Amino acid sequence: xxxxxxxxxxxxxxxxxxxxxxxxxxxxxxxxxxxxxxxxxxxxxxxxxxxxxxxxxxxxxxxxxxxxxxxxxxxxxxxxxxxxxxxxxxxxxxxxxxxxxxxxxxxxxxxxxxxxxxxxxxxxxxxxxxxxxxxxxxxxxxxxxxxxxxxxxxxxxxxxxxxxxxxxxxxxxxxxxxxxxxxxxxxxxxxxxxxxxxxxxxxxxxxxxxxxxxxxxxxxxxxxxxxxxxxxxxxxx
Length: 237
Description:
- This protein is α+β, with helices and mostly antiparallel strands.
- The chain has one domain: q2cbj1_9rhob like domain (Jelly Rolls), CATH 2.60.120.
- The chain is 26% helix and 33% strand.
- Strands 1-11-7-15-5-4-2 form a seven-stranded antiparallel β-sheet. Strands 3, 6, 9, 10, 12 and 13 form a six-stranded antiparallel β-sheet that branches.
- A hairpin with a 6-residue loop joins strand 9 (169-174) and strand 10 (181-185).
- Helix 1 (2-9) runs parallel beside helix 4 (75-98) and helix 2 packs across helix 4 (75-98).
- The chain is globular and about 50 Å long.
- It holds the Pfam family Oxygenase-NA.
């Protein structure tokens, strides 16, 4: 885990922060190695790792499947989650301050999870997603309870245009009194995509306003697409 921690600490977080403020998303390239991605994929069928499996079509979420991990999380996932969070908390705090939302997030992830726990949100939200041919994910937001962290990450475990075709990551921005804007991203295997869970501030002539955002996955044309979703708050159910 020391290698992962070292990589995270040596990221240009000032640049990431500026990109997040501007766009509501940013990409960290090559955080995980090919081998680390393959290990996570190979564990997909190990039922002891997971607390719940969701078949998306049953809930009209899309076409595919995802599994929520149990606590304790695998060591590599726990390391990524706890090490990245302190770099994202100042971004989240700046957003809430700009929008006059009376919430500030602690710099320590466990302290934030303690707040979730006291609110009855005690179940892990980290998940692994699998899409086959025809798979997709409808536009949504991952909130899970009254207490939520406004930024989350996806780690791509498959290589676009090699392991699968299509399956782009889609973000939409809804600016007040304007049409929605679609953003299409293609993170590579081992890349980390950081993005807003619900909204980001936009700067207007009269101050900051809320830009609401949702995310999803476009249709997979061929192959299998695996990704790891790391959400920093816990769920009530």
